[in-house]
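Methods — Computational structure assignment.
A single polypeptide chain was analysed. Its primary sequence is given first, followed by the predicted tertiary structure written as structure tokens.
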Amino acid sequence: MLNEMSWAEAKKYFAENDVAVFPVGSNEQHGPHNPLGTDHLIAQALAQEAAKRTGVLCLPVVPFGVSSHHKQFWGTVFVSPDTFKRYVKDACLSLQYYGVKKIVVVNGHGGNLDTLKLLAREMREIGVFVSVFQWWTAAAELLPDLFKSGERSHACAEETAVNLALHPNLVTMKDAADEVLKDYSFENSGISLPFDIVDYVSSGVLGKSSTASARKGKEVFRAVVDELVEHINALKKARVKDLVQKPKV
């Protein structure tokens, strides 16, 4: 953990390594049963465990993200996409100053993804390769039969299960909600609508959360950490010149 190092320890690390892990998330509603910090708490746990197993530096987590679509639920703290991108980019530029050329962003909130993709492209143009890891995307591919489709969305059984595995004291399962999303007749295939979460559900849960268990959460955590560790180890070996933007042909 970078924040637990002295500057002398940090100097030694940066002199020998060009990789860092950077967790980001959000502070937003996750139903009446999960903590508001779900996204950044999970991202932080994943990043710290993967960093420990790979010997790679881990930054402190960014707790706020692009989540204005949750704002009608009390306690959601959100920032604009521009603010989020500038903040994370400045942190990445600080790492570049110390010689870091490869950064793995462990993203705990889907609303951050579009902004992080733009950031990654901008950083690649100046010689820093940024990859973005999302645990739920990995879990759906690695453990396709562990949860049903209605259990894998926001604040549902899968996300609740990981919370139960990591910090059960913060989850109140007696308040877990199961909701059917409101259907809009004009929400046709290929159409994107600017709705907020409250336009679809009243509890903030986009499906079924009552079937969550710590056992399944531990299984998800193990699988996605293994996947993240594999990515970091491969990135450590990769040549920077093969990762950064190519010159004109």
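Note: The helical segments are 7-16, 38-54, 81-97, 113-125, 135-142, 157-166, 214-237, 240-243.
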